[in-house]
Predict the structure.
Amino acid sequence: MPPRNKRKSWAAIRSTTTQAEFAELIRRYPHRTNIVAEGDSWFAYPPKWLFAGKPNNIINYLKNMERFNLLHLASNGDEAVDMLSGKSKFRLLKSIHKHDVHFLLFSGGGNDIVGRWDFDYFLKRGVTSDRFEDYLHKGRLNRRISQITHAYEDLIGFCDEYSHNRQIKIVTHTYDYLVPDPAGAEFMGGLFKVNKGKSWMFPYLEDKQVPKKLHAPLVAYLIDRLAGNLLKLHARYPARMVVVDTRGLIDPKTGWLNEIHPKPGGFKMLAREIHTVIKTQ
C-alpha cells in the first residue's frame, strides 16, 4: 500500500497508472465509479506542448467531467491484438480480477488498420481503377478485421471468466472517418515530430498511386468494416459490451488535428458520449 499522504493530495488525483494507488483510491472513495482504461492514442495522445495546453485525448477530458477512481493503462500506438496478449494482457486481467471495476474502457483496432506496417499492407500496387475497392487486398484486410474481432471476443470472455465484478461493462468506440493528409504529428511547436513528421496514411496512398478522390472513401470503408463488427459484438453481448458509435462526430474539414487524431474539441465530444454511457448504465 502506498504511503498515507494527506487527504487533500489523494482527493486531487484524477487518475493513476499504478495498481497500488488504484486500490487506495477505491478504499478511500468507495462511492465513486471504478474504471480501468486501456487503449491507444485516443486515450493517451499528449497535448501539443506535452505538459501544457488543453487535454488532448478522451480520458483526460473524461476524468475532468467527474471524479472517478481511474486506472489509466493506455499507451500511444497500441494495437488491439497486442493489448490482449503478453504482458499487456496480464496487466489488464490483473486489474479487473483484483479490483471491483465497474467499467473497462477500451480503445483498440485503429492502429491495427492504419498503423505502420499495417495500412500499406492492405494496399495493392499497380492498379488503375476508379473504384477504391480495387486498391485493397481484401484477403489481408479480412484477416486483420477478423483478428481484431477475435481480440474483442477474448476481452469479453476474459471479463466473463476473471472479473472481480461480474457486472463489469466494456465500453468502446468506433473511431471516426479519418482524413488522409500529408501532415504528421508534431509537438512543442514542431521541435519534436512523431515518425519524422510523416503522416500515417497519405504517403502510402500516394506511393500506391491511389487517386486522391478515392482516399476518403477507402479509409471510410476501413472504419465502417471495423465499426460494423464491433456493433455486431454489442448485439451478441449487450449485457457485457457497449459500443459508442462515434462515426460522424468530428467535422471532416475543421475537426482533425492530423490524419488520425481529432483536435481537443473533438476529443471532448467523444468523452461526453462515453460519459453519457457511464452515467446511464
Remarks:
- The two ends are 31 Å apart (CA to CA).
- The first strand starts at residue 34 and ends at 39.
